């Protein structure tokens, strides 16, 4: 009896800008694209919120000064902590839609989770 297992996966290799990219066959599940910029912003938002809640800083302005960024930008990023958990999970898993970008997420959005989806 042999311990060798062979798996056949129909893929195509394409060159893009000197790099090889795998193209999956039609009907294959979509490739997950994790937006590292968006994930980093979420991580910062929750870290900043934790610091404010713990009383390490009295105001957003104080924390923004320490971080070396504008308090208006920090306020917009902190709003990401108000996103529905389903949306946060989708972003972290790379399942967010193509229209979900950091620039779009920093725009005002409804506070009710059901309205966000």
TrEMBL record:
This is Bacteriophage-related protein. The lineage of its organism: Bacteria, Pseudomonadati, Pseudomonadota, Alphaproteobacteria, Rhodobacterales. It comes from Albidovulum salinarum.
